[in-house]
From TrEMBL:
This is Septin-type G domain-containing protein. It comes from the Eukaryota. It comes from Clydaea vesicula. Signal peptide: none annotated. GO terms for biological process: mitotic cytokinesis. Residues 314-328 have a biased composition (Polar residues).
Amino acid sequence: MSHLGSVANIALMATKTHRRKAVKKGLTYTIMIVGSSGLGKSTFVNTLCESNVFPKIDYSNAEKAALEKTVRVSPVSVDMEEDGIKLALTVIDTPGFGDNIDNKGAFTDILNFIEKQYDDVLAEECRIKRNPKFQDNRVHVLLYFIPPTGHSLREMDIEFMKKLGTRTNVIPVVAKSDTMTPSELQSFKKRVNEDIAHYQIPIYNFPVDEEEDDDEVIEENNELRNLLPFSIIGSEEEVIMNGRRVRCRQYPWGTVEVDNSRHCDFSKLRYMLLSSHLHELKEITHDFLYEQYRTERLSKGLEITPAEDIGDSPYSSVQNSGQNTPSAPASPVPVRN
């Protein structure tokens, strides 16, 4: 066997080993939730994960309520299983976002958090000896909750999605969509999409490649794109209807089922996030969004200073050197499944 063939076999074996470990340990995946208070974000996450991930906030407690008005980035880990695949999910809440008159500080806090994860990966790439315990915490998708005003996007919505859309996969959703009639909801979605196009907001819009993608993928992505922004309803209440247990919200005029695609888009959004498009969102994060950020950082002449290869710290520091080239060559870190 040639030397080249041996190298190829070793690489193939390493890839298979990596995949076996990933399946055994579970795929890692990070979702960030952003939106103003009172839009049902915690209930949505609990419904999405089918567990009590975020307890309800008691706003009758003045001290606690005041604390929640300050923007914080709060990651929570959840172990799940979807379609037989173990999923190590991290859900990041951002309580306090959008609750102040001036929310520029909130934009900066969230943007800095996302870029910090990229900086950590970039620093890890430049280590002479890689840290086997390095945690890749990059945000793969950001769900932006739009209040159901029935009008159009607010200035804050436009500014935030434009800033964050170049750093992560932004997917807009209409919160508490059951507060609008079907015709009101469709009109609102239309106006939101017109704003997204007019202001050239970079969202994840289910792109297709006519040459590479098969007909089934193209049809699915076109269908999902037509649902944007997804209309969602969250509820942890379960009732028995026609002999089956359903999650729903009950009103004097009737019942809205969370998982009924005729009532809202929750079931399709959930399947897309946790199954059909999970790998694509991870790949776009690594191959495009991170690489774009990495190129920007290195082209500015940043000096990459790897941390010591001894000790427990998994991180390196990124410093401004004023030079045109990095002090150490950077080799890509593989996508961490």
